[in-house]
Amino acid sequence: QVQLVESGGGLVQPGGSLRLSCVASGFIFSVNAMGWYRQAPGKQRELVASISSGGTTYYADSVKGRFTISRENTKNTVYLQMNSLKPEDTAVYYCNVGFVRPAAHWGQGTQVTVSS
Question: In whole numbers, what is the pLDDT of the chain averaged over residues?
Answer without folding.
Answer: 97
